[in-house]
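Chapter summary example.
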Amino acid sequence: MIRPDELTTTALAASKADGCIVVLTDTSEVNVRWANSTMTTNGHTTTRSFAVISVFEDSVGVVSGNGVDLDEVRAVVAASEDAARQSGPNRDAAALLDGAADDDYDAPAAATEIGVFARLTDELAAAFASSRNELLYGFAEHRLETTWLASSSGLRRRWVQPTGTVELNGKIADDLTRSAWAGAYTADFTDLDFTALAAEVRRRLSWSGRQVELPAGRYETILPPSAVADLMLYMAWSMDGRPAHEGRSPFAAPGDRASDKPGDEQPGGTRLGERLTDLPLTLSSDPVAAGLQTAPFLVTTASGDSVSVFDNGVGVHRVDWLRDGTINALAYPRAAAEELGGRFTPPPENLVLTGGSPASTDDLVARTERGLLLTCLWYIREVDPVSLLLTGLTRDGVYLIEGGEVVGQVNNFRFNESPIDLLRRVTDVGATERTLCREWKDWFSRTAMPPIRVPDFNMSSVSPAS
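The structure predicted for these 466 residues follows.
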């Protein structure tokens, strides 16, 4: 395989555009899988992808390739230039960022190996050996993505992004419909306590010994960090500046939204500065967040409402999307920020919600007279973009709480909730901990969330899903 520096140098030398950006990513990934309390497969893969972004004045073209040989690289450059010539002016156009080379720019790609799972497999073997009437299923993967960013303006950046996840599902052997799930994120598996993860799955399975049927309705509900992460992520992905200014977002000012504007009224206002909750909750993203580190500069091969290819290489810093319960930031590319009077803010690559008490999920359960404890959410879809009303299903365990204790497992539900409205109604927030969301983990795995209590979570209908 051709060297990364050779690929980027060849691409930039072949470019005839006014400006050119090359984004190259080499990925090294290992994984292990188990089922029926038995190891089944493991694998190690390496892949490469690169994209050439060609700019002619305000027009841009982006074409991707695999970097097999230098002829392919030159062909991708030519194709991206053709795409740029055929495209119209881009409203997100901005000057390419100047800069110098990172000290490690010429370093080779980082590589992971199957040995990263040594501690995990030892603990997994112990979990298999101690199994009684449960079967364990799961998957773990570790990935190192080395990205190089090179531009005709002189910028040379490099970043190695580690990503590790593990998911564990347990089922009762004589009743495979009773299941429990737990997952975790880790950068390198040295800080992962798989034994604790397995113990939690077994505890949840033990709660399923008593089955209780409940109707749809509004229930006092404890959402664990994983479920909170899925909902907060959807809200964060909706916090784009341009849609808010144009009245097509839940963060447009009341009266400016497309669905409630009478006559010729024009949009333009946002909900920045509006208080969502009296609780001191802060939702932030930060490239140096402990255990959740991400690239300190922007890398993208596609433009949208929240991000622009023209902004590649711009430094990324902490953003408080909510600060002490108040909407504090929206995402703007540089051009949109200048046009709309906002502040350049890239979308989040990790997400942290803080401001609660030191209480754990168990503590919240202990002070609940009667309610429900969720495990995780899935199949989340948007119902109403104006209110950000979402629907979805519960999965792998909904538990009944009575007198501060879990006393059984109840049926699954379909829910209808808006994360924005949910924050208004939250009455109790626990301690923030690193977690793995269930629905969005394949796209966004770096989160830290607290458990929360909602006095009237809307279980809109009973679901037959298990």
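To summarize the output: The chain has two domains: 4-206, 210-466.
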